[in-house]
Amino acid sequence: MARGVRNGLLAVVLAVAPGLARSAEGPGPAAASDGTPASQGRRPDLKPGEGLAVSGPDGEVHGFGASRAETPLGALAWLVWLKLEGAEWASRDVVFRCKGPCAGTKGHGRMDLEAAFRLGCRQALLAWIAASAEGWRRDYGEGVARTRLEEAFRPFLADRMPKGEDLPHLDPQWLGEGALLRSSPEAFLAWLNDPGQADLLSRCRRMLGSRAFHFKDLVGAEDWWILADGTGAIGSNGRVVAVLHLPEPRPLPDAVLRFKTVMGAPLK
Q: How far apart are CA 122 and CA 172, in angstroms?
């Protein structure tokens, strides 16, 4: 892409994310996502190993830092499950009592769907996934259930789908842990920006928007939704979508704080 065109597209993102623009202004060029020096003067203030992908209203994905590095999906896999089973789980008003240990806690207690996503309750998600798998086996049979799973996760599986003809055991790897499901911030954001994910983005906004992060310096008084785990975060306000990867695991609140910092949001 020509430099002038790319700068023009990036200006669209910066226009709706001035907080990012302010945080990106620095004394010199940063490294591009492929490790080469960047020619643009305004770059996000990233630490070594961090990768950020951002898109604005035009859907064009802009990557910074290690934004093309493939890593385990982490919490991003939860969005694939939300697309696949979110409507069913919501219709059933699913609940789960997490007795821990889970996500660095001694137990989350009673979890509904929204709370499980906000607090990163893996035990709740694994329980609901197991129940869904049983329903698929009953309704579709093993073979069709396996195909349904593989089609949903194909962009992140490559050739790593477990061998066999039956539905595989849906262990924590299917929640983004380990090497099974992998992507980069840029690739995942490109997937999320596909028109086919419009309903998923709307569901995230309805379900997680109650976090009420008012990024006033970034987008006025609009609410963002944020989904995070120890390895990164994703968030959107309906116009800007951003995916941040963190190279070293950290507690969920720290990951949210880092996302807010990189995006130029108020810290309180």
A: 8
pLDDT range class, residue 237, cuts 50, 70, 90: confident
pLDDT at 30: 37
DSSP string, the chain: --HHHHHHHHHHHHHH-HHHHHHHB-SS--B-TTSSBPS-SB---PPTT-EEEEE-TT--EEEEESTT--EE-TTHHHHHHHHHHHHHHHHHT-EEEE-S-BTTBS--EEEEHHHHHHHT-HHHHHHHHHHHHHHHHHHH-HHHHHHHHHHHHHHHHTT-SPSSSSPPP--GGGGT-TTSSEE-HHHHHHHHTSGGGHHHHHHHHHHHGGG-EE-HHHHTT-EEEEEEETTEEEEE-SS-EEEEE-SS---HHHHHHHHHHHTT----
State yes or no: pLDDT of 174 exceeds 70. Answer: yes
Nearest 5°: the CA angle 250, 255, 261 is 135
